[in-house]
């Protein structure tokens, strides 16, 4: 029974990581590649660590595997966010079929500051809801 | 049952490593390569876990922790390098 669980967890983890690798080769631009690799890669590593925890069935090993899972769960979104932000500010070209890039109008390439579109910029799509309170940010 | 599964998993992880390496070599821009490196580190963490099951040495999990930590720090460092004055458009 334990062997079956371990085998299923290991196969699921390896499948997720293989899917992530296929996605990182096949998908067209940086954000879609990150979409494939970050989520599926972290999921595969977490499944593999679950298999390790079930195989050894020891409290120390379980604690270590759980620590790895928590660590991956914390750091993977942070790293993906930082890389995606850096890639966008570097000006990597998006895919030709990209329908909408809402970030393009709202950020300042010099100061790397993002605007929400509601704080009184002249090109804002929607006017501010209350013009009287425009100075309180 | 476990040894057969472990062989299959080794094969799949090696294939994933090869595909990620293809993206690492031909990726058109530097952030693509950083993403590929992060995926490679994630695959290596999985590799170490499977190897811990294969050999029965549970101390190898510490190696997995260190690899995950190093990959995170490398990703943060690369991102800062790209954002603060890396080469534009390599």
Automatic annotation (TrEMBL), chain A:
Respond yes or no to whether keyword Glycosyltransferase is given for this record.
Answer: no
Q: Kindly give the InterPro entries that the UniProt entry links to this protein.
A: PhaG_MnhG_YufB
Listed A to Z, the keywords are:
Membrane, Transmembrane, Transmembrane helix
Annotated transmembrane regions = 6-28, 40-57, 63-83
Q: Which domain of life is it from?
A: Bacteria
Chain residue ranges for the region called Disordered:
106-137
Keyword Ion transport in record? no
Q: State the name under which the record lists this protein.
A: Monovalent cation/H(+) antiporter subunit G
**Organism for this UniProt entry:** Marinobacter azerbaijanicus
Q: What is the lineage of its organism?
A: Bacteria, Pseudomonadati, Pseudomonadota, Gammaproteobacteria, Pseudomonadales
TrEMBL record, chain B:
Alphabetical list of InterPro entries matching this protein:
MrpF/PhaF-like
Q: Please verify whether the record's keywords include Ribosomal protein.
A: no
**Keyword set for this entry?**
Antiport, Cell membrane, Ion transport, Membrane, Transmembrane, Transmembrane helix, Transport
The subcellular localization recorded is: Cell membrane
Q: Where are the transmembrane segments?
A: 6-22, 34-53, 59-82
Tell me any Pfam family this protein matches: MrpF_PhaF
Tell me the superkingdom of the source: Bacteria
What's the protein's topology in the membrane?
Multi-pass membrane protein
**Which coarse location class applies to the principal site listed for this UniProt protein?**
membrane
Q: Which family does it belong to?
A: Belongs to the CPA3 antiporters (TC 2.A.63) subunit F family.
Which PANTHER family did the record assign? NA(+)/H(+) ANTIPORTER SUBUNIT F1, NA(+)_H(+) ANTIPORTER SUBUNIT F
> What is the name attached to this protein's record?
Monovalent cation/H+ antiporter complex subunit F
